[in-house]
Design goal:
Length: 188
């Protein structure tokens, strides 16, 4: 117990020599809260995706049909059954893309809160985020295999993965833009 303050003091001295800021207790607590909140949000979103995937074919079709009914009233003046079926298919695929678009952003944000980003190592965080999303998409489709009336589709894994990739790339671009803007303003 007595060595802890000395070790903490040594760590602070090393950090000062290396030009790092000293973390105060309140800053550490704030970082810990950010970490818990970001991973908690990822977990909640994973549950949301799981629950959507747990819907049997009839319930899933009702949700798509509900959205299709709204679209028919607002945008589409279409009565042809083949076209309506196509629009329902499109709604389901956009839902897949959108779920994983958000998931990609949440996972990347959680990894950024977890790992200290170094200029040359950023791609590992981005790649790790994408791998997490693709893995979850595969397990999600595997889960759907056991749901009555649903089936596992490799195409859906691709759509999910592309949604996650799009979210990760977009969020990365926004973060890089903010960082460059901050650096540029610090030189002015």
């Amino acid at each position: 117990m007595r060595n802890e303050p000395k070790e903490g003091k040594k760590r602070n001295e090393r950090n000062k020599r290396k030009g790092r800021k000293e973390n105060s207790g309140s800053e550490q607590n704030r970082n810990k809260r950010k970490l818990i909140l970001s991973w908690g949000t990822v977990l909640v979103w994973m549950i949301v995706i799981f629950l959507f995937s747990a819907d049997n074919a009839v319930d899933s079709g009702k949700k798509s049909g509900f959205l299709l009914g709204i679209l028919r009233r607002i945008l589409i003046n279409e009565q042809e059954p083949a076209r309506l079926e196509y629009y329902a298919f499109l709604i389901r695929k956009i839902a897949h893309f959108s779920e994983y678009f958000v998931f990609g952003i949440l996972v990347l944000n959680a990894w950024i809160q977890t790992v200290v980003l170094k200029e040359k190592k950023r791609w590992k965080v981005f790649a790790g985020s994408l791998i997490c999303c693709v893995f979850y998409a595969m397990t999600d489709e595997f889960h759907q295999y056991f749901v009555p009336g649903r089936f596992a589709s490799p195409k859906d894994v691709l759509i999910d993965s592309f949604g996650a990739l799009t979210g990760i790339v977009l969020f990365s671009g926004i973060l890089l833009h903010k960082e460059r803007k901050r650096i540029k303003s610090s030189f002015e």
